Amino acid sequence: MDFSSKLLAQAVDEMSLLPGIGKRTALRLVLHLLKQPKQRTQALSAALSRLREEIRFCEQCHNVSDQPLCAICANSHRDSEVICVVEDIRDVMAIENTSQFRGVYHVLGGKISPMDGIGPQDLTIASLVEKVSDGRVRELIFALSSTMEGDTTNFYIYKQIDPAKVLITTIARGIAVGDELEYADEVTLGRSILQRIPFESSFKQS
Predict the structure, then answer these.
(1) How do beta strands 79-86 and 64-65 pair?
(2) CA–CA separation, 134 vs 148, rounded Å?
(3) What is the pLDDT of residues 113-150, one digit of tens each?
(4) Which segments of 22-116 are extended strands (E)?
(5) Model confidence, pTM
(6) How many domains does the chain divide into?
(7) Better-predicted residue by pLDDT, 182 or 69
(8) Which domain holds residue 161?
(9) Percentage of residues in the chain with pLDDT exceeding 90?
């Protein structure tokens, strides 16, 4: 694309770096922002700057938060002894939308994927194992996507933990194999949480 303005070209280039945004969509968004009142564009810019500078991660579960503890971990009505292990914050949001889970979460920050250069040391597995070792956990629920990487991560964590000290379950396979958790509908995901099964059963049957 040829632009009459270098500033416009730079804005389009930056916008097109976002996931799912091509050059044409980026141009449409940038031109839309140009038509808005200056205060509207400045408010968006300020919100993004504050997001990048001030957002933090929960000290207990690694979810995004404005405070040292996220709203879920700080909620005394949640069962802190039941931990749902997820890949990232989008999965927390997906499960919360079902209104079926009253425990807390542990966000790994990804899945083990040697092809992508992601190993156990790149995830928050160590702090999860520490929680279990300290006797703070009654049940661990694996809620990673039903992919090879998700199953590999589940099994690695399982081998790091003494199963005798904690109940380890996984969400029921209402989630199709190969599906990403965040794209599951709320009813299916809610049922999968409620009908979870012992983790050992999940890999013995596969």
Answers:
(1) unpaired
(2) 30
(3) 999 999 999 999 999 999 998 888 999 999 998 788 99
(4) 56-57, 64-65, 79-86, 103-107
(5) 0.75
(6) 2
(7) 69
(8) 76-205
(9) 69
Do 43 and 102 share a structural domain? no
Q: Where are the beta strands (DSSP E) in the chain?
A: 56-57, 64-65, 79-86, 103-107, 139-142, 167-170, 197-198
| Predicted pLDDT of residue 203 | 58
Mark 111-127 as b/e (b = at least 16 C-beta within 10 Å).
Answer: bbbeeeebeeeebbbee
Q: Which residue has the tokens 């904690």?
A: 166
- Rounded to an integer, the average pLDDT of 90-100 is 92
Q: State the number of CA atoms in the 13 A half-sphere of 200 facing the CB.
A: 7
- Shared domain check, 166 and 80: yes
32/133 same-domain check: no
CA angle 163, 171, 141 (to 5 degrees): 40
Residue 64 placed within a domain:
no
